[in-house]
Every structure is written in C-alpha cells, then in structure tokens.
Amino acid sequence: MKKIFYFLLAVYCLLNNISSAYAQLRQMEYLDRGVVAVKTNNGIFLSWRILGTEKNASFNVYKNRKLFQSVAANKATNLIDPSGTINDRYTVKAVTNGQEEQNSKEITPWAEEFLTIQLNRPADGITPPCITYNRAKRPPIVQEYPNGQLYTYIPGDCSTGDLDGDGEYEIIVKWCPSNQVDNSFSGITGPVYLDAYKLNGKQLWRINLGKNIRAGSHYTQFMVYDFNGDGLAEMVCKTAPGSIDGKGKKIALDKDDPDKDWRYLEMNQKTCGYILEGPEYLTIFKGKTGEELHTIPYSTERGEVNSWGDNYGNRVDRYLACVAYLDGVHPSVIMCRGYYAKTTLTAYDFKNGKLVKRWEHISDIKGKGAYGQGNHNLSVADVDNDGYDEIIYGSCAIDQDGTILYRTGLGHGDAMHVTTLDPDRPGYQVWEVHEEKEACRTYGYEMHDARTGEILWGGPTNGDNGRGLAADIDPKHRGFEMWSAGVNGVYNCKGEKIAERKPAISFRVYWDGDLQDEILNGTNLSKWNGTEALTINKFPGAMHCNGTKRTPNLSADLFGDWREEIIFSDTEDPSKLRIYTTTIPTQNRLYTLMHDPVYRLGIAWQNVGYNQPPHLGFYIGDGTEDIPWPQLYMPHGQYSKE
User: Fold this and answer.
1) Could you give the C-alpha distances from 488 to 195, 445, 456, 535, in angstroms and in order?
2) Which structural domain range is residue 85 located in?
C-alpha cells in the first residue's frame, strides 16, 4: 500500500507541474476533526480543528444529526449553542470544493471544563536497603534506609501520538516514583513505567523500564512519533536488561542476562543506586501494543565516566532526545548523551522494522564543536532554510548531516526558546539563559541568531541564571517578549526593557483567543496587561508536575481549535489525569498547531530534561490571514495543495 501511495503522490506532483514537490512535503500524522464540546454558563461551547491541508475548507455543524450551522471558510472554528445541553450530539463535517466529508465522529459534551482519564496507578514499592546522599545541600544530607525506602507513584511528564491510527491522539504517561533523584544524588529509585491511554481511559499497554534504568528527569527521554509512515506512532527510549515491553517480554540482547542487577547496592553514601556498568540499549516499541520492535546497543557508550564532566557518575547519564526531519521528508529520532563536557548525538531512521544509524556526532575536545555547549533541553527547526532540520543544542547547533553548524561558546544553560522572536529579522532566533560563571559575566541572558550563532543582544548576570521564558505577551510591542530569573524586568525582541516587573517564568500557552500568549505557572494561568500578569484561571483541583519547575504534565493542541489543551494530575487522586480545554470564543482562524513542523516537534521533545514550552515556526502576532501553510502529506493519502 505504501508503494502505491508514493506512486500516486508522484503522479499528483507531475500532473500539477510541481518540480521536486515530494521533497517539499513532510510526512505528518493524519488527524480527525477533533471536535470537543463543553457545557458552560452560556450553553454548549463547540470547537474543532482545521487540518494543515484544508486552507479553503468551510464546515457544516450538525446537532442531533440535523444541520445546525454552517461556518464559512474565513471564520474561526468554534461556536456557542445557547440552547445546547449535555445530552445533545454534535458532528462537524468539512466542506471542500462543495463536497462534504463523510466520516465524522459524533460527540457529546463534557459536563465540566476538563476531561478526566482514569489511570492504572502502579503499586507502591520498597527498595533494597540503601543510603542517599544529597550533594545540593550544604552540608550534604545523608539518609539511611536499612530496611529499604518506601515509594509511591505520581504521573510525570506525558507525551502524545496517534498510536492506533484512528486520527485521535493517545496520551503516554511516565510514572515517576517518589524517590526519583537528580543524577547528582545517590540513592536507589523505584522503576519507571510508561503507560499509554486512549482519551476514553482505555489502557493500551504498560512498559516497565526495570531496575537497571534509574528514575529522574535526566534519565528517560521518550520520543513518540510515526517514524515509519504507517499511520501509527511508535515510541523510542533508552532501555536495559530487564526492561519489560507491553506484551510482558523481557528485553535483552545476545547473551545478556535479563535478570542481572547492575545497580550499586553497597551502603556507600556517594555511589549507592548508581548504574555505571552493564549493557545499555535503545528500543523502539510498537505504539498500538507496546511490544518491542527492535533493540540495539545504546550509542554512545559510557566509556570513561570522567570524560563526561565528573568522576562519580552524574554527567555521564545526562540524556536528551528529539525528532527531526533530517532528509526534509521523514522523521528521524536523535538520542543524545552529555552536555557539560563530552557531548554526543546519534540519529536513527526506522526502516523495514529496524533502527538504522544515520550519523553520530561526538564532540570530545574542550573548546571545540558541541563540547560543553548543551542545555537541559533542546529544540529543532530548519534554521538555515534549506528544507532540512537542525538540532539547536543549547549554545550550539547541529546541522542535518551531524556536523557542527555553530557554537557560541557560552556553555550550559537551563532554558532556551527558538522561534521567530523578532519578526523583523529573517529566520529564527534563540533566547537563552546561561549558568557558567565566565559566560554570565558577559551574557547571563542573550538572544542570538539561530542560523549563525551571532549574539544580537544580552547582558551579564550575577552567576547562574536558572530560568528564562520567551512569549509574545504584549501586543504593543511587535515580536516576542523575554525575561529571566537573573535580571529584573521584561525585554522586547530588540533588547529594550519595557517593564520593571516580570511575570512567572515557567510556561506559555494559547488560551483566551487573542494572538498573544498566556503565562502558565504551575496551575495558575495569567494574562499580561503591560505592567503585570493578572490571573485568569487557577484550575482548582489540579496539580502540576516537576516540582519547582511547575510545569504541566503536557501542554499541546490535542483537539478542538488551535488553542492548546493543558494536562495536570488530580490533586486528590494521582491516579487521574485532567485534560483542560478553553471555552473562550475566538474570532481567529488557524489550522491545528500540530501540523506546523516546529510546533509538532516541540511537543515530541517537551518531556525532555527541564521541560520547555513549544513554539510555532512562524509569527502570528500580526494576524493569521497571511500565515504560511505547511507542505505535508499524511499516511491516509491527504497532501498539501494550494
């Protein structure tokens, strides 16, 4: 079937006189209409998505199978039914060239502003006898657990993908044990579980990463994407002997013992719980069932632990990951190790059921390449406008062929943002905050050109500048605004201070219907008024994740119109997720953010390290009339056309 599709696509390109059209079309996921209806004080709020292939589509809205309202091709895809009730049934059908689509899902309204997903919370556990050593405290805190340490589970970072090919997103949940640790701390952790759920709460699978994968924000970065173009997403993550797939199979290569325990179990306060020996794997799992599809040795290997930046096993296990279109058409997965010193990235394609290495980048010489330039996060975009994606790896960028594109030399940082920060400049820019003392003397915060690394503006801070956010929050200033923990005030994209006070520094989200960002800090959503941020929603009963980072479990355009959904766990019952959606009408029309490649790849990497919010690959602050439309094709045979 795939060969037939590619043949028909080629014929389409020839008939429409599009030279090299196939090379311009990215493989993207097929999505259904994504209709959502919610009971409000004004009736039923209804919204739905426009696909990236539906530039001129209008819509017919049906209520109880009778035509209720037609929405023109220049109108926003939301409405309010003042007489609607939670017992009514709604269907939305696109109309293109006078033809109404046939297959559209019928939905009933939610009774409140969030959808609850009941999860299968893992059972509590207890570790072997252990000792923990917290290096972050002065003096360090040591705790002994001669009878083992009890742990429970809460939902951590989530991701999303269409695992079963029905056009609806599923939610993948990383379960975090309460004794998870930063790499710099010793201690034995409970195992990490990855679960997949449909929006109706049906659990598709559970993957147990096992005792040889430690729990913490730097260890397990899981990429969910349709890597082979079959219309169903896969999941890729680091595994080890004893990891158990969604079918109950233990993972092991060759003669490796799947039951061997590679943890340091001695009651040594500085090494207990570390896993610095034994095999390391990379596994791709089938999204529909969680079963292992292919496992290979993890690249790059540990080698000498001290080559990664310390001698006790902290920085050797600093991992990042992302998805990028390195050939401009198909997604590849990139798995990364190291960023304080030795830095490596390895790209793989998923072909014929196998993970196939595309390239490996190793920077192991101080002062050269990516050595010491990585962040606790990364981003992906086509920064040089050649049709292929680059990986923005903190203070450096890696080209699509695995070579270094540039390095700024400013070193490690905790946060960065990549998008059209300044719409008056060509291409993308990077807003980044820095940690290294020498860098902070000149640039504790800075905005640089994403293609060349040229510093556009910035300034010094008094040491580690640990937080930074970029968002378009002020309509009086064209472009994005930026602020950080280490300096007072808010700056516009030209580097001019526009306010003395600054809002919270966590996440951004599209929510209220205008074209500016709202500010999400934990479960507090606020709106900037030019001088301060005012709360517009507090999401009572919800709980954020990632501790002081105060991030949502996931924020993404999962359904409805182009505004984003926000996922939190339930404060009273951690076995439940809540997916919040806006019920504020908007007059702005925009296709689903998930069909913009920069944004969609941002959702894939959102769970990585210190979570950063996604951004669009284009600027919408001037309006949505002249926005670029994506050049894409979908496995179901839909493709971009003017």
Assistant:
1) 41, 12, 19, 21
2) 26-111
Strands 390-392 and 396-398: antiparallel
| Alpha-carbon gap, residue 155 to 307, rounded angstroms | 34
Retrieve residue 522's tokens.
């934990």
Cα separation, 73 vs 397, whole angstroms: 40
Asked whether residue 50 is assigned to any structural domain, the reply reads yes
Q: Which residue has the tokens 């220049």?
A: 74
Q: How confident is the model at residue 21 (pLDDT cuts 50, 70, 90)?
A: very low
Query: DSSP labels for 44-60?
Result: EEEE----TT-TT-EEE
Local confidence band at 5 (pLDDT 50, 70, 90 cut-offs): very low
Rounded CA gap, 239 and 535, in Å?
42
Predicted TM-score of the model (pTM)? 0.95
pLDDT band at 22 (very low <50, low <70, confident <90, very high): very low
CATH number at residue 89: 2.60.40.10
Q: What is the 3-state secondary structure (H, E, C) of 242-275?
A: CCECCCCCECCCCCCCCCCCCCCCCCCCCCCCCC
Counting Cα atoms < 13 Å in the Cβ hemisphere of 502 gives 21
Residue 30 lies in a domain: yes
Question: Tokens representing 326?
Answer: 């390195």
Dist CA 229 CA 226 (whole Å) = 6
Token digits for 433? 């905050």
The C-alpha atoms of residue 228 and residue 231 are separated, in whole angstroms, by 8
Q: pLDDT for 433-471, tens place per residue? A: 999 999 999 999 999 999 999 999 999 999 999 999 999
- Do the domain assignments include residue 331? no
Whole-angstrom CA distances from 156 to 101, 214, 223, 499 are: 38, 15, 15, 34
Cα separation of 238 and 227, whole Å?
16
CA 313 – CA 304 distance, rounded (Å): 10
Instruction: For residues 296 and 157, give the distance between their C-alpha atoms in angstroms, rounded to a whole number.
Output: 25
CA distances from 111 to 36, 37, 55, 324, 520 (A): 12, 9, 32, 39, 24
| 170: nearest Cα among 559, 477, 570, 617 | 559
310-342: pLDDT as tens digits: 999 999 999 999 999 999 999 999 999 999 999
Could you tell me the sign of the dihedral formed by the alpha carbons of 487, 490, 491, 493, in that order? positive
Which amino acid is residue 452, in one-letter code? T
Question: Has residue 37 been placed in a domain?
Answer: yes
Averaged pLDDT for residues 512-516: 97
Q: Would you state the structure tokens that stand for residue 589, as one six-digit string?
A: 């029309």
* Phi, psi angle pair for 397, to nearest 5°: -140, 140
CB-count burial class (<10 Å; 0-12, 13-18, 19+) for 207: buried
Q: How many domains does the chain have?
A: 1
Non-local (6+) Cβ contacts of 602 within 8 A are 379, 380, 613, 614, 615
> Rounded CA gap, 73 and 52, in Å?
14
Contact 360, 348 (CB under 8 A): no
